[in-house]
Amino acid sequence: MPTAAIAFDAFQRLADEDCEARIVAAKAALGKRAVILGHHYQRADVYKHADLTGDSLKLSRLAASTAADYIVFCGVHFMAEVADILSRPEQISILPDLNAGCSMADMANLAKVERAWRELSEVFDPDEQVTPVTYINSAADLKAFCGEHGGIVCTSTNARKILEWSFAQQPKVLFFPDQHLGRWTGHKMGIPLEEMPVWDPDEPMGGLEVEQIRKAKILLWKGHCSVHQMFQASHILRYKSQYPDAIVISHPECNFDVCRLSDYVGSTEFIIKTIAEAPPGTRWLVGTELNLVNRIAEQFKPEGKIVQFMAPTVCMCSTMARIDPQHLAWTLENLVQGKVVNQITVPEEEAALARLALERMLQVS
Ligand code: 13P
Ligand code: SF4
């Protein structure tokens, strides 16, 4: 008789050390049938179990190329969706806690993007004028929208190349959901700020005048990351007044002033690589999520590199942190029993269009 999946209740009160041993045992039992992918922001007690780690671009490539039956994604919901879209139909993508979402991704939804498209059509035909570009931090239906309307997906690593591709298709871009990544990338391409107005999805016509829409090169969706918005220019100025030789490196989800005051701006993978390649004894101020900064600080301490977190307060990706050792142990032990819990499935019609936008991205970058 078929048995039911093991309920999470049994894991809820499990001590972290017990989870650790059970994760190791379950991984050994599963062997190559399961691969654990871990984003750089993942908490240390989960990250250490990842077989492969990376930024969003690297993880999407890994998801597309793994041979494992089960892709256990220690990241957030949109990442597990991308894994489902890019993997083979028989592979199974799993998010150990379904509550691990992304607050930025939630700032855009299909109804609002479709409304924006309708409103734009009062000024011009958006399908003849606008390339929709979604940051990978978005739901699958928004990626599908981009696939359907000649658009594309970008990550923090390839945003510039993707915008260049987009402008080769149409003269304008609608960029969602992160205004900061869009603005910084457009600025680096030489686009004046006046030609990158913010589209407020809660206002009629995005809160813009028709003339502003006509003049715009990039319409920036009013969205942001709740973690990266905590970093401020004043944090950089204060630290630099104390340590003038400090090198500042930030993620492009930080606001424009923070990016402008930074010596380097780039993805999580770029941040790690840049500090790894720097001379010993250098001092760094880093504007990105705390788990990653702590890991980098530990990793490069033996080389005498000093790595300081940018904000005075704790800025963690609290949604990603919901994937704790308890949820990972529960997920893996179910797989050992042949039970799949928390599978992420994107409906095929939506997945096909989203795949189009993702594959355009993978080809361009
Ligand atoms: P990366 O692609 O740089 O890893 O960024 C993902 C993310 O969600 C940053 O907040
Ligand atoms: Fe989303 Fe921000 Fe977390 Fe990145 S750090 S996954 S953008 S909430």
TrEMBL record:
Required co-factors: [4Fe-4S] cluster
Domain of life, per lineage: Bacteria
HAMAP family per the UniProt record, alphabetical: NadA_type3
Residues that bind iminosuccinate: 39, 56, 135-137, 156, 251-253, 268
Family the entry assigns: Belongs to the quinolinate synthase family. Type 3 subfamily.
Example GO biological process: 'de novo' NAD+ biosynthetic process from L-aspartate
Pfam families tied to this protein: NadA (PF02445)
Designated name of the protein: Quinolinate synthase
Cofactor mode of binding and number, as noted: Binds 1 [4Fe-4S] cluster per subunit.
EC number: 2.5.1.72
Keywords: 4Fe-4S, Cytoplasm, Iron, Iron-sulfur, Metal-binding, Pyridine nucleotide biosynthesis, Transferase
Subcellular location: Cytoplasm
Binding positions ([4Fe-4S] cluster): 102, 225, 317
GO CC term (a single one): cytosol
Function: Catalyzes the condensation of iminoaspartate with dihydroxyacetone phosphate to form quinolinate.
GO-annotated molecular function: 4 iron, 4 sulfur cluster binding; metal ion binding; quinolinate synthetase A activity
InterPro entries: NadA, NadA_sf, Quinolinate_synth_A_type3
Location, primary (coarse class): cytoplasm
Residue ranges that the Swiss-Prot or TrEMBL entry lists as coiled coil: none
NCBIfam families, per the entry: nadA, PRK09375.2-4
